[in-house]
Specification:
Layout (H helix, E strand, L loop, with lengths): L4 E5 L5 E5 L28 E6 L9 E2 L2 E2 L9 E2 L7 E7 L2 E7 L5 E8 L5 E9 L3 E5 L6 E4 L7 E5 L2 E4 L11 E7 L6 E6 L2 E7 L4 E6 L9 E10 L5 H16 L2
Antiparallel strand pairs: 1-2, 3-19, 4-7, 5-6, 7-8, 8-19, 9-18, 10-15, 10-19, 11-12, 11-18, 12-13, 13-14, 15-16, 16-17
C-alpha cells in the first residue's frame, strides 16, 4: 500500500515529504506564534474626538508651534500664529518634549468640538504647570478646563459662573501629572475628577459646551506650563479605562 504523503516546510525553507502521522523531529515541527498583544493607547477606547501629543511634532528646540496634528484622525489639527504660538521644547519630561505655553498670550485654535448638554465626555491632560492654567477653553464663551497652582493645587471645570473644583492633589503643581475630567450622559450627572488614576472629588454637571482653544479661554486666562498630551472624548471612560491609560500608557511615557 502506498503511504499517503504531505509536504512540510523544513527549517531550511525547503519542502520535504513526510509520511502521514509521522512525528517530526523537534527542530522541524511547526509551532504557531501567539497572537500579538495590543498596547493600550487613547485610541483603544471609543469616542475619541481629538488627541494632541507633543512627541508627534517634528520640530527643533524652541521652535514656535504653528500646527499641532490631531492624532485621532478627526482632523482637529490645532494652529497657532504670529507671536502667540507656544514653543516646542525638547527633554522637558525626561527625554520627551513638550509644547510650552508662556502664560501671557500663547494659544492654539482648533475646530469647534461640542460636548452636548447631558452628554458624556472625558477630557485628559498630561503636563506640568508654573501657574494657574487654562488647559482647553473657548474664544467667545467662558468655559474653562483648568489646572490650579495656587493653594488649592487642583483642577476645575468653570462654566456659566459655576466653578466646580476637585479636591487637592498630592502631586506637586510643577510635577508631571495626568488630570481627567469625566461625565456620564444623563439628565442628572456627576463630573468626576482624577489625579492620575485616583478620584479627587465629584460635582453635579449637566451643561453642554464647545471647546476650540488650547491654552486660552474668552475671559483672558491663558496657560503657563508644559503640555505633553491632550485627549477629548464624547464618551464616559470607566475607572478601569482611566487606570489602564495611566498605568499602561501615560505614566511610562511622561514619567508620572
Amino acid at each position: 500500500m502506498i503511504a499517503r504523503r504531505q509536504f512540510l516546510k523544513a527549517a531550511s525553507g525547503l519542502f520535504v515529504p513526510a509520511v502521514m502521522g509521522a512525528v517530526l523531529p523537534a527542530h522541524r515541527r511547526i509551532v504557531p506564534r501567539p497572537p500579538a498583544s495590543s498596547a493600550t493607547t487613547p485610541a483603544s477606547f471609543s469616542g475619541l474626538l481629538a488627541w494632541w501629543k507633543a512627541d508627534s511634532l517634528s520640530l527643533s528646540n524652541n521652535d514656535p508651534v504653528s500646527s499641532w496634528t490631531d492624532s485621532s484622525g478627526n482632523g482637529k489639527t490645532a494652529t497657532g500664529s504670529s507671536i502667540t504660538r507656544p514653543l516646542y521644547k525638547t527633554s522637558i519630561f525626561g527625554s520627551m518634549p513638550a509644547v510650552v505655553f508662556d502664560g501671557s498670550d500663547d494659544e492654539m485654535s482648533f475646530s469647534n468640538t461640542s460636548l452636548t448638554t447631558e452628554g458624556a465626555y472625558t477630557i485628559i491632560w498630561v503636563g506640568k504647570i508654573s501657574a494657574d492654567s487654562i488647559i482647553v477653553g473657548n474664544d467667545t464663551t467662558n468655559i474653562q478646563i483648568r489646572k490650579y497652582r495656587s493653594s488649592s493645587n487642583n483642577i476645575s471645570k468653570f462654566f456659566d459662573s459655576i466653578d466646580q473644583q476637585s479636591s487637592a492633589f498630592s502631586t506637586a503643581f510643577n510635577a508631571a501629572v495626568m488630570c481627567t475630567w469625566r461625565r456620564p450622559a444623563g439628565s442628572v450627572t456627576v463630573n468626576t475628577f482624577f489625579e492620575n488614576a485616583t478620584t479627587r472629588g465629584t460635582a453635579n454637571d449637566t451643561n453642554g459646551f464647545t471647546l476650540n482653544r488650547i491654552g486660552r479661554t474668552s475671559y483672558g486666562g491663558f496657560a503657563n506650563g508644559s503640555f505633553g498630551e491632550i485627549c477629548i472624548y464624547n464618551s464616559n471612560l470607566s475607572d478601569a479605562n482611566i487606570s489602564s491609560l495611566y498605568a499602561d500608557y501615560f505614566a511610562g511615557r511622561w514619567g508620572i
